Amino acid sequence: MRGEGVAGELAVEVRRLVKRFGGRVTAVDELDLSVRPGQTFGLLGPNGAGKTTTIRMLLGLVRPDAGVIRVLGLPPGDPSGLRRVGAMGETAFYPFLSGRDNLRAAARRCQVPDARVAAVLETAGLTARAGDRVSGYSLGMKQRLAVAAALLKDPELLILDEPSSGLDPVGQLEMHQLIQSLAGQGRTILLSSHDMREVEELCSRVAVIGGGRLLAEGTPGQLRGQARVWVRAEPAGQAAAVVAELAGLEETERAGDMLSLVMREPGPSQVAAVNRQLVEAGLEVSEVRTERRPLRDVFLDLTGGRSGGADSLRPPAGKRKRRAGRAPGQAP
Ligand code: ATP
């Protein structure tokens, strides 16, 4: 069965990885990653964070300046390892050939039997349009063709670099369904993205990177931390005074027109207690609910709300300001 591998062996292991371009740009800076077999692992970072450079080093296309990489237990670019890895972007498509003929050409190049072409077209939902020229494909179809090409080798490890980039909501949904079905087959998937919703929906584990460094790592739930109690009540000033007296309150923060409370044990009974206190104090309560911080806020806090390239590195820790809290769903 897929995803088992040698006991304890990681699908991808990266230790203290460094890549510099020229003297000035440190694209990847002492990065550590551990991807377990069968995981859908998100590499989340803003533009220029070092995601593509990391992926290119995993594939043996870029040589690291320092650090250790093991892909399926082998050094990057090892031919026997590459046979078990499929990556989006490995194949350039001829626009005047059909999707099917492009995949046939790619299958020949990676010595895969022609029979795989029909299988991967079906998986990517392209069978009906397989005979059409690629030049007439929508962006979503081209992206799915790139995933189909990456699947030709029936890889244990599938590397997807921003697969939904530029797609409209329908294209994104189709891509997400495709990735979910591939993950369901027990394949290991490394997915780079700057779309937090995508990572949260698809990945069981996430590494947030910025300026080439690992900023945080965990399940989406761990990254979002403890659930908070969100309160909307009028007048807001009085509501803040009432909640300040609540038993079990650890922290309170104004987030737009809402109050965000960190409670010792957030749950239905706490929500009911908060609501009761506010109503008994004569306040008009329109909303009380528990929710974790949106991953977007965690991401913006971690990356300092800026893009992650070497030209926009985070300020030193002491100079970083805490962002004001936002209510879930509220625009930054
Ligand atoms: P994006 O989401 O925009 O694709 P990314 O996270 O994939 O970004 P990278 O493409 O890995 O980021 O780039 C990381 C940094 O390294 C950027 O500052 C980029 O300008 C720089 N960089 C990448 N490749 C090269 C190169 N060949 N020469 C010089 N600088 C480079």
Question: What descriptors fit this protein?
Answer:
single chain, 332 residues, alpha/beta, six-stranded mixed sheet, four-stranded antiparallel sheet, 13 strands, 31% helix, elongated, disordered N terminus, disordered C terminus, binds adenosine-5'-triphosphate
Question: Your description of this structure?
Answer:
This protein is 31% helix and 26% strand. The protein has 332 residues and is of the alpha/beta class. The strands form three sheets. Strands 5-6-7-3-8-9 form a six-stranded mixed sheet, with helices on both faces. A four-stranded antiparallel sheet has the order 11-12-10-13. Helix 3 (99-109) crosses helix 4, helix 4 packs across helix 5 and helix 5 (139-151) runs parallel beside helix 6 (169-183). It is elongated and about 75 Å long. Mean pLDDT is 86; it is low at 1-7 and 308-332. Bound molecules: adenosine-5'-triphosphate. Adenosine-5'-triphosphate binds next to strand 2 and helix 1.
What's the topology here?
Elements: E1 12-21, E2 25-35, E3 40-44, H1 51-58, E4 66-71, H2 79-82, E5 85-87, H3 99-109, H4 115-123, H5 139-151, E6 157-161, H6 169-183, E7 188-193, H7 196-202, E8 205-210, E9 213-218, H8 220-224, E10 228-234, H9 236-243, E11 249-255, E12 258-263, H10 268-280, E13 284-291, H11 295-303
Parallel strand pairs: 3-7, 3-8, 5-6, 6-7
Antiparallel strand pairs: 1-2, 1-4, 8-9, 10-12, 10-13, 11-12
Bound molecules: adenosine-5'-triphosphate.
